[in-house]
Design brief:
Strand order of the largest sheet: 1-2-3-4
Radius of gyration: 16 Å
Helix content: 25-40%
Number of domains: 1
Number of strands: 4
Largest sheet: 4 strands, antiparallel
Structural class: alpha+beta
């Protein structure tokens, strides 16, 4: 017997606030999972400092899975962002 496949649809709202050098991502998903990510981009020397703050609200029974998934997704996101910034 194999794993059960489940397609989870998420709703994401991204808001850019250029005056604050801020990008806000609000993610809502089943079952009552909410993630809010705030990312700032600040010039630092000859580069850019990127700071991300993530708040996650989730039911306890899926908290471990949500944390692992969020860690993996954001690691990939930051790796891609770094590659793109260094390519320019």
């Amino acid at each position: 017997m194999g794993l059960i496949s489940y397609r989870n649809k998420i709703r994401v709202k991204m808001t850019q606030r250029p005056e604050e050098d801020l990008l806000v991502q609000e993610v809502d998903s089943f079952p009552n999972i909410r993630l809010v990510s705030r990312t700032t981009f600040l010039a630092e020397g000859s580069g850019t400092a990127v700071r991300e703050t993530i708040d996650i609200d989730t039911p306890n029974f899926v908290a471990g899975f949500v944390q692992k998934t969020a860690d993996s997704a954001h690691e990939a996101l930051l790796k891609t962002l770094k590659a793109r910034l260094e390519a320019n």
